[in-house]
Amino acid sequence: GRMVNTASFSFDGALALTASIDCSAKIWIVTSGECLYTLAGHSKPVFSAAFSPDGALALTTSSDYTAKIWSVASGECLYTLAGHGKLVFSAAF
Fold this sequence. Notes:
With 93 residues, this protein is an all-beta fold. The protein has strands at residues 4-9, 15-20, 24-29, 35-40, 46-51, 57-62, 67-71, 77-81. The radius of gyration is 12 Å and the shape is globular.
């Protein structure tokens, strides 16, 4: 496996979100350990990931100078926040 940079739980504790150096993040079902979605789209390692307070969105940050907002329900990238001139290290809602 690849190194995981961060891991966090959804506020209800049902899901976990991991950020990895393999350029992806993953949403996991805690009770089964099943990967619900792989959030692929960053071109460089993902440093951090966080759930929104309502659990509907996930935010990822990467060394590709972007942050991305994802739908937790579908695993689809909704927005790419580009324009950062340096690495984007931290994700928080």
